[in-house]
Please model this.
Amino acid sequence: MVFKSMVATCFAKGGRLEQSYRPLREESARDVWDAITTYSATEPVDFIQHSGGMVMLLRKIWNGFCEWIGQTAWTWVNEHVKEMLVRLGFKTEEAVVIAEDF
Model:
């Protein structure tokens, strides 16, 4: 899964800031729709199947988020795969990178 665009949004509603929120909601809705129509696939995509199952999908999303915010220490690594790769002769750093995808 590759993200083509990041869209900042505001969908807050009500309260004393409603006058400010309304135009932001409308702009956000347009921006989200524009991104969908620009980058959407021509055929439906089953994210769960293409990502290796629900756990793998969540792991990839979490690891991508950690990388994006610069907190790679928080990444979800399959420790069993990492340890096996280290025993096979991979450097620990290499094993961690590979194990993040399992």
